[in-house]
TrEMBL record:
This is 3-oxoacyl-ACP reductase. Keywords: Oxidoreductase. The keyword Oxidoreductase applies. Belongs to the short-chain dehydrogenases/reductases (SDR) family. It comes from the Bacteria. Pfam families: adh_short (PF00106).
Length: 495
């Protein structure tokens, strides 16, 4: 064997050994060329590695996207289809509609305004399937949804996106239509389970009437690699006045200041890096033992490090005074700091209970309300709170943690209207199994189960949570209010 081939073989084997000992061991091994013969011989499942955002300038959608709409959905008066097509037209994807659909005439009319072409070729793979279901009014009309996806779903590419746009059931004009719009959740969740093996995602956007002008931020996010670990989820879009700011989609947070708690490592660190990448000035807060990591991160990001304990009320008052003294205000607040103190309920002492409730829940309330009351959080600001899927489903040995994280969701829902008076939005993110130092400490078998019980058959990365935070923080995301978005790969835990 030539010397070059020997060196390449040695290098490949060393990379194989490395992949077999770090991170998601199973996924790394079965996706490695050295393991392919064994994988094929044993017919092992191979989770497709997710394609995540690599740089801020990356296109939000490429390839070939297929668009469809319920009958009459693309007539001139259908602003929803127009809004969807406007967003799709800003991507580099080639846009198609299916030949022979009942709404073909309407789509032909729309194609004069947008770069739509008839899908004549049936061999290419779709990078996205986007459907406007807002005109469906009866259960019988759901057949149009079925026909569109039935004919196209087998031709989706790896890492593709399925998006359905509907109306919020509460806004529907009849019980029949409300039931149909609620049924879209069942459709999208099942679809997500069927396509997850391709690292493909399926999600639902539900609009209040006349809220289509607020579609762009969540639609771009769900179509892009930023939303790679979000699937089987629903986002509700409320009708509010859209921002008058011109959005730089490569750096939408320019001239914004973000405060992130628990920012020195793991998810908090990824949030800081992502918001800074998107243009924000970052203020990073964490406790004294994390000082070195926090200050190093702040220097690298050109931000400001604050050493404080979120459970310390005096430290909170000092933080507010320091910010006001520097003539600074905050546009984005990310309540990320949290702890675990696990024990079964019968063996849990009150110290474990009280510390988790205080830091994970009460501190969020204190910080948010103090910043709002002292007008440190600007009008038009964004609040994002980190919850957990265990706050939705509960978890053995985590009554304190699950209680606190469920409380976070309740707090977000309750604070929506009070904050809306100052045009401040508040939303929650519920991460699932995320690859962090904390999850690396979980026993191997439990860790593997945690990874495999999602539709994407793998754990998420801290940047998956961070990308969702950045989406909620976007000035164009003013219609996203009181949502709880699960960033979990459609984990079987929870609803």
């Amino acid at each position: 064997m030539p010397k070059g081939q020997v060196q390449k073989a040695i290098h490949n084997f060393s990379q194989f050994q490395k992949s077999a000992t770090q991170g998601d061991v199973y996924q790394n091994v079965v996706n490695h060329p050295w393991a392919q013969p064994l994988v094929k011989a044993l017919n092992l499942p191979v989770p497709v590695k997710l394609r995540r955002q690599q740089q801020a300038s990356e296109e939000f959608l490429r390839g070939k996207a297929l668009f469809g709409a319920a009958p009459n959905g693309t007539k001139t008066e259908s602003n929803v289809s127009n809004a969807i097509l406007t967003v799709l037209s800003k991507s580099s994807a080639k846009l198609f509609f299916s030949k022979g659909n009942k709404q073909q005439q309407d789509l032909m009319s729309a194609s004069k305004q947008f770069p739509l072409r008839v899908l004549s070729e049936t061999t290419h793979k779709h990078s996205a399937l986007v459907y406007d279901a807002t005109n469906i009014e009866t259960p019988e009309q759901l057949s149009s949804l079925y026909n569109f996806y039935h004919n196209a779903i087998s031709r989706i590419a790896e890492h593709s996106r399925v998006i359905v746009v509907g109306l919020t059931p509460e806004s529907c004009k009849s019980p029949a239509q409300a039931s149909v719009m609620r049924s879209l959740e069942g459709f999208i969740r099942s679809c997500a389970k069927e396509i997850g093996g391709k690292a493909a995602t399926a999600n639902l956007l539900l609009l209040e009437p006349d809220a289509e002008a607020l579609l762009e931020a969540p639609l771009r996010y769900l179509l892009s690699a930023r939303g790679a670990f979000v699937t089987g989820q629903t986002l509700h879009i409320t009708k509010v006045s859209p921002t008058k700011e011109a959005i730089n989609w490569r750096q939408p947070l320019l001239d914004k200041t973000a405060l992130i708690t628990g920012a020195s490592r793991g998810i908090g660190k990824a949030i800081a890096e992502t918001l800074a990448r998107d243009g924000a000035k970052v203020i990073l807060l964490d406790i004294e033992p994390c000082k070195d990591d926090l200050e190093s991160l702040a220097r690298r990001l050109g931000g400001h490090a604050v050493i404080a304990d979120v459970s310390d009320k005096k430290a909170l008052n000092k933080l507010i005074k320091d910010v006001q003294k520097g003539s600074e205000t905050i546009d984005i607040l990310v309540n990320n700091a949290g702890i675990t103190r696990d024990k079964t309920l019968a063996r849990m002492d009150d110290k474990r209970w009280n510390s988790v409730i205080d830091i994970n829940l009460a501190a969020i309330q204190r910080i948010t309300e103090a910043l709002v009351d002292n007008k440190v959080l600007n009008v038009g600001g964004r609040v994002v709170c980190i919850s957990s899927i265990n706050g939705i489903a509960g978890c053995f040995g985590q009554t304190n943690y699950s209680t606190s994280k469920a409380g976070v969701i309740g707090y977000v829902e309750a604070m929506d209207k009070p904050l809306a008076r100052r045009r401040i939005t508040i939303n929650a993110i519920a991460p699932g199994f995320i690859e962090t130092q904390m999850t690396q400490a979980i026993p191997f078998l439990s860790r593997e189960i945690g990874r495999r019980i999602s539709s994407l058959s793998q754990g998420g990365q801290p940047e998956d949570v961070a990308e969702a935070v950045a989406m909620f923080a976007n000035p164009a995301a003013s219609g996203l209010r009181a949502n709880t978005l699960r960033v979990c790969g459609q984990n079987l835990v929870g609803a």
